[in-house]
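User:
Care to share a sequence and structure tokens?

Assistant:
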Amino acid sequence: MRRRAFIALVGGAAAWPLVTRAQQQAIPVVGFLHDGSFAPRTHLMAAFARGLGEAGFVDGRDVLIEYHWAQDQSDRLPALATHLVQRQVAVIATPGSPKATVAAKAATAAIPIAFSVGADPVKLGLVASLNRPGGNVTGVSYFTNELGPKRLGLLLELMAGSADIFMLANPKNATTDSAVQDVRAAATEVGRELSVLLVSNNRELDAAFATIVQKRAPAFVMNADELFFSRRVQLVTLATRHAIPAIYTSREYSEIGGLMSYGANLSDMWREVGSYVGRILKGAKPADLPVVQPTRFEFLINLQTAKALGLEIPPTLLARADEVIE
């Protein structure tokens, strides 16, 4: 809507000086590509806009952003990426969406791409190295999948006994296998078994919780995935309803009632992508921009949820929390 209105405004400005119209026509277009949807990510989009603004670009004034959301239908991503390439956008931004980044990289080797991903971008084949990305792709890596064993350790500090731990994982995520292997190895080291439940849609999420309840699972962990993030309210609600302790991958879960979370600040990561888009628009080359990595990770505990679940959080665990929600 905003873009159509802008085009109509320019088209009706016949009386404007030629220089002014030329400046309007020169405004670069940034393509935005994501496999999810807008509504669960309004705060992240605000962070992305903030990063762009810090670099001197405001949507509708210095830059036009063309948004392509796949609405959790990742099979649409190649066509959406191709459309952005055909539009000859100046940059493609793919914050928080590895699938979109892969689709964009497959669609163009010329248009710069700025990403943020929770996995190792080298292993995903997005960049040659973190310090020297090479090619047309760079961005932010917050290594959230690599934090799986750490999350498991924090959860086990809370949970007594020796029962199995369950893990929710999306089989359609390219990083799932390695994330599961890491968590399973960590569980084996402390004598625990890891049972993995595969979830790729709403129906399977409900079925997974039915299994967790039936088998009286003491707790669960999860791998970072955009599907889970989009459905975080449903996920946290189910865990609370069935009184199942869990640790999540970012603060957004704990803020809506998730028991614990450990991971990078996603708003900071999206702001960095916006900043990189701005730097690229000013002439920087992706090959010369090293992949940004977080300097710290946040550990949150929701005491309200702990009380609702009848859990006593050990003082040693509370002392290590970066934030306690009371």
